[in-house]
Amino acid sequence: MTGILKLGSRGSPLALAQSRLVAGMLAKNAGMETSAFPIESFMTSGDKIQGRLQEAGGKGLFTKELDEALLDGRIDAAVHSMKDLPTRMPAGIVLACVPSREDPRDAFIALRAKTLMELPQGATVGTASLRRQAQTLHLRPDLKVELLRGRVETRLAKIESGAFDATYLALAGLKRLGLEKHAASIVDDEAMPPAPGQGALAITARAGDEKTLSLLAPLNIAEHAITTMAERAFLQALDGSCRTPIAALARIADGTLAFLGEVLTPDGKHCWRRRETVALGGDPSEIARALGAGLGAQIVAEAGPLYKAHFGDNGW
Question: What is the domain range of residue 60?
């Protein structure tokens, strides 16, 4: 496979759609055909797991094989969903740019209810996300939450067959696949904030690979880089992994950065929230990082003892 820049991607339809989107951006910026930016697909450790990700090691499972391909030179850059990216990058790899962020909210998928609150008592919600599980049980402790993993199409089929009464999918993924018609409703991000970085794409590359980094730099969208930086700083302050239900959403408007973040216990019985809006003067990146990290540290101080008492090594 030859080209100007080789992209790596997971092999799912959504991941490949996202990688083709990036290839199109690169081609347009360079005034070239998309064939100059070929895509190689990989099956990652996360794709092979049938159970819950938090039991298999959490974040990094969807990036490991792509990281290895980057470091040994088989690809030049890797396209990820931002929410799959560990907060601490492996040695030799950098986050090169954030080229796109679709609507970050969740979509509620069900055949017999428009919203979570309309589900009948005892209904079954399928999800592999600990965040969505905790938020669901926090709002509706009467519901049952069971494991539902797989590609977008697989999860939609499970709802169509009646195997589950409802599930959630990232609205961004549905839009990128042209499947948003399957959403019964869009989840209110005040009631259920999304995962940190949800809806955003992240492109990683080798540190010091100036040719690749220079090709990727024009794709970066500053607003998306700043909001996701705040969300990832919040996640990092909480030592975020798939073992902790964490939600965060940052928005920029009128020169300010507004942030909402929350942490829950997996059973949904406890929820800690922080909200703050700051002016974006000076260095916006540092302001975003400080905001997310500071609010995360506040929650660690407040919620940490309960997490340690209830969850032992899975707490902070």
Answer: 7-100+200-220
Task: Give the span between the Cα atoms of 155 and 106, in whole angstroms.
Answer: 14
**Are 89 and 34 in the same domain?**
yes
The pTM of this model reads 0.92
147 domain residue, yes or no: yes
Please tell me the distance from the alpha carbon of residue 125 to that of residue 136, in angstroms, as a whole number: 8
Catalytic residues: 84
User: Does residue 312 belong to any structural domain of this protein?
Assistant: no
* Average pLDDT over every residue of 120-148: 97
The whole-angstrom separation of Cα 30 and Cα 217 is: 12
**42 within 8 A of 8, measured Cβ to Cβ:** yes
Among the listed residues 234, 229, 290, 291, the one whose alpha carbon sits nearest the alpha carbon of residue 263:
234
pLDDT tens digits along 275-305: 999 999 889 999 999 999 999 999 999 988 8
Comparing C-alpha atoms, which of 255, 214, 181 is closest to residue 97? 214
Does one domain contain both 64 and 88?
yes
